[in-house]
Specification:
- The chain is mainly alpha-helical.
- It has one domain.
- The protein has five helices and two strands; from the N terminus they run H-H-H-E-E-H-H.
- Helix 1 packs antiparallel against helix 2.
- The longest helix has 24 residues.
- It is globular, with a radius of gyration of 18 Å.
């Protein structure tokens, strides 16, 4: 691996495995309810988010500058144009757009909102797993499953 990566293969594997397990668990619930975005879709969104988060954290290691000891001067460092941690923010926007495609209307009935929301939250879980924020990601995944399974009654 390049020297900019400050994570070992086991850390990468754990992050990806957890994103597959918990994204898949939420996707299974959606699949059991015969929703369009099910098992595979949720796994791919969650794992993709984890990958983007790892790239955000570890992929630009040589560009992270401590502003307190080394202020960034664009005239001195012209190649440091953006904060690479913003990559994760683009996941939120992109997956929001993907989820919006799941929302359909038939007359006065709107459906697909829960599936769209689950895709969006699975992306957040993937970002947590990719960041190594495991407790938050696992807790969120468990809560999503509880919400999707228990609160499924329309009121």
């Amino acid at each position: 691996m390049s020297q900019i990566w400050h994570i070992h293969a086991g850390g990468i594997g754990l992050r990806l495995l957890l994103s597959v397990v918990f994204g898949g668990a939420i996707g299974l619930e959606r699949g059991w309810r015969n929703r369009d975005a099910g098992f595979r879709t949720h796994i791919l969104v969650c794992m993709g988010s984890a990958l983007f988060m790892m790239i955000s954290i570890f992929g630009f290691g040589d560009q992270h500058v401590d502003a307190s000891t080394h202020p960034v001067d664009p005239l001195v460092e012209p190649n440091l144009l953006a904060d690479p941690s913003r990559l994760a923010a683009q996941v939120i926007s992109g997956v929001g757009f993907l989820g919006a495609g799941m929302i359909m209307q038939n007359g006065k009935t709107v459906f697909g909102l829960s599936t769209a929301a689950s895709i969006w939250v699975v992306a957040a879980i993937g970002l947590c797993m990719g960041a190594g924020f495991f407790f938050c990601g696992v807790t969120a995944a468990c809560l999503v499953l509880i919400v999707q399974m228990i609160f499924s009654v329309k009121g």
